Structures are given as C-alpha cells and as structure tokens.
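Minutes, project check-in
Item: structure for the 187-residue chain
Input as provided by the requester:
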Amino acid sequence: MDDIANDISSTIGRRIHTERTMRDWSLAELAEHSGVSKAMLSTIERGMTSPTAALLVRIAAAFGMTLSTLIARAELKGGGLLRAAGQPVWRDPDTGYVRRHLSPVCDMPLELIKVHLPAGAKVSLPAASYAFIKQQIWLISGKLEFTEGDQVHRLEPGDCLALGAPSDCTFHALEPGADYLVALVRS
C-alpha cells in the first residue's frame, strides 16, 4: 500500500474507531450491526487495510450515516472553503472507483461528490446506504448504466437522474468509463 493510500486508510480507520467509541460499542457490537467480521473491523481501525466501498457502506449504515458522511468526518476539517488540493480522494481497491469529496464541512445538508468509475467496473450499494439521503446523479462524461431496484437507467453525458425511494443500486461504467457528480441531501 502506498503512503497516500495508507494515510487515508489510517484516517478512515481512526474515524470508525471514534464513531464506535462514541456509541460505547465493542468491536463485537459493531460487527453485529454491520455484518463485517471483528477481525476485518480491527484491521480497518488500525489502518492496516484499505477497505472497499461495500465494507464502508455497511459500517456507515451501522452508524446510521452514509458512506459520504463517514468519509467526510474522517477527512475534512471545518471552514467554508475547501480548495481542490484539500479535497479528500478515496480509491476503492477492488473496483478502481475514485471518489473526490468536493463540499466543505458546514451545517448545510448538501454534499457534492465527484466520482470516476473505470470502464467495466461495477459498484453495488444496498438500499440501507440510501436510507438517510436523497440524491441526484449528473453524468459529466462517458457512459453509465445505473440500476435502481428493478429499473435500469442508461445515462449519457449531461443526463441527470433523481433517485427514488431507497433500493439496492448498482453503478456500472460502460466504455470508456464514467465521470459523474453526485449531489446528495441528508435527511
């Protein structure tokens, strides 16, 4: 693992430990709530592995938050301006999914996230990850197939999709890959 990935993994791990400690949960309790093994949680908390998006979604949902909120709490400091160089970037080691958190930490419930998904890559998220948010996806470039429950949406550059009620979802980048903006509002 390179130094940057190791720093991000350590920061995320420390945040998960902090969230768990604030709730006075043992590793066993977090494992029960998230469905992630105690051994894996311990490895993540110590920054010894770079967790996948799927694992982080399950952990965030156990805390009653979104993946975006968990990563934002790990990476961001307060202030109204978040310069490009300070925007946290996280890469899923399994899919190559790259997520850049654009929004500064503030009291506003809106968050903006820019995502790059390589061609052929798929990221599936359970309905629980959408329980606390409403969101829209705006395709900047490339082609994206987005499955929302039983419905498949094929997005072209400039298309914007407002998601409905929480359901299992899959992002699938077609050739040549996809760059998209996610605008979400915490409820």
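Outcome recorded: Residues 1-5 have pLDDT under 50 and may be disordered.
No further action items on this chain.
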